[in-house]
């Protein structure tokens, strides 16, 4: 008997221009476009296996070994239903294609990074789920077309369908058909940029992104200014900086946008605080590092939590890790995937 099963993985992405706010909460249509860098480390991915079988009782999903319920009309169900619909269209075109769209699916997804690392697992998770079912169903869909479906799982997931530098264009169609991810430049265009992830706290965050951003939409006047007056020009400017490999321009915009995102969180009623004292101290260290160098050599950015991501050209990574370890000594040795010997174990 034929076995219909595929395994696909998808990476984490970290935004430089932040997504924060929905104009349609059901379709997950954003109030502004956003742009991210997809992390290409093997150890920051979600891997999803999907299997279709007529003997299965119903669609079921396991996340890191624990079964999650698939609520009718919920985000998981929306993605699965949409992918089955596209499969049914393939079957209608080709009568020899097995009727996988009528079989229940079992989906098992795992993150190879601890949830405690404070990285958004919903982005890589929904991207892997959509890519895995699309492969199982042999859909003739481009990553941008699949991003429209992943977006309905979690907004930021649409950007994890591509590697490298990725824009999520907000679009204007009421049905969301043009709210999708596009590749700005592949990873190979600018391989020199590295992302340093600084885990400040592994506590679960107080305010979820989904509820926090809607409170911001409802209460923040600053968000309206950001949407109308700030982000469109910033999207153009950062794309241009990426295409020209202009690190200082890329870094300045990235820091400005992180700062404005956290300002908008603070402008929410009641206010949302994602940064803590250590986060702010890291901002001060990076600001001083750039000032002392007389050039922008590193950029910090923070999502909906206190952990820092620092973008910098490879040549600065060792220096920055040493600087951070000097100000924030670690009880555990620094994980050293680059062989930088920042723990001075070679001595
Ligand atoms: C981003 N974040 O652009 C921004 C920056 C958090 C701060 O995308 O409701 O988990 O699932 O669409 O995608 C977090 O939002 O929210 C996010 P939903 P999501 O990466």
From TrEMBL:
GO terms for biological process: isopentenyl diphosphate biosynthetic process, mevalonate pathway; sterol biosynthetic process. GO terms for molecular function: ATP binding; diphosphomevalonate decarboxylase activity. Residues 10-181 form the Diphosphomevalonate decarboxylase-like N-terminal domain. Keywords: ATP-binding, Lipid biosynthesis, Lipid metabolism, Lyase, Nucleotide-binding, Steroid biosynthesis, Steroid metabolism, Sterol biosynthesis, Sterol metabolism. It holds the Pfam family MDD_C. PANTHER family: DIPHOSPHOMEVALONATE DECARBOXYLASE. This is Diphosphomevalonate decarboxylase. GO terms for cellular component: cytosol. Belongs to the diphosphomevalonate decarboxylase family. Pathway: Isoprenoid biosynthesis; isopentenyl diphosphate biosynthesis via mevalonate pathway; isopentenyl diphosphate from (R)-mevalonate: step 3/3.
